């Protein structure tokens, strides 16, 4: 049974609400006003519960959905203008459902998580609240596992699932007191030199057997990032001589690698 299909009957069930709201508006602020407003809210609570149940089973605790739906109901009661129409349900239902949908948008899972992990997360959250009240402190993972009859591995999986609930923004500071620095500034990135590792491994045996002078010149050029004139001054040779040694050594290494 859907609310939309039986909205006419539901509207009839709450046909007295617009009358009560008109009388409420006529009272104006005061003690009796608050008491009668509370009475109208209590009268309409089943409508909020019905909508909360429609959204149950989507990863959010029913108690949370009920609280949000009741907030939407209060908003609907405060905003409904009984002078412009008598169908309170037609106004209240989209107002309440909009509040529940915003709750899912703002607090729902930020990425796809297996249902089992979501259920673990919810069970662990409930157990943590119960244990915190009885222990007077935050419970340990082992205490949560014992409370729920789960293994430490299952509890760990549930705790890890929390990170998918609301991830941190890469623009947020990594910790308190780090103004001006974002998380993206301190997260590691892929080292571009990783692409050269295979080349280093392949050429190393041939570098090891080079004559000391050729190996030193090669190392100064490609690992020390020195120019040919700087190398010439370091090893006591002319720049032309250094250039010929580099060309001959590189050609030899290319030929040996090609043969391999």
Question: Would you kindly provide a written description of the structure presented here, covering whatever features stand out?
Answer:
Residues 41-109, 123-175, 207-255 form the RNA polymerase sigma-70 region domain. It comes from Tomitella cavernea. It holds the Pfam family Sigma70_r4. Helices cover 68% and strands 0% of the residues. The protein has helices at 7-13, 16-27, 31-55, 62-79, 88-107, 115-135, 141-148, 152-161, 183-186, 197-208, 212-222, 228-235, 239-259. Helix 2 (16-27) packs antiparallel against helix 3, helix 4 (62-79) packs across helix 5 and helix 6 (115-135) packs across helix 7 (141-148). Mean pLDDT is 79; it is low at 1-11.
SSE order and pairing:
Layout: H1 7-13, H2 16-27, H3 31-55, H4 62-79, H5 88-107, H6 115-135, H7 141-148, H8 152-161, H9 183-186, H10 197-208, H11 212-222, H12 228-235, H13 239-259
Helix pairs in contact: 2-3, 3-4, 3-5, 4-5, 6-7, 6-8, 7-8, 12-13
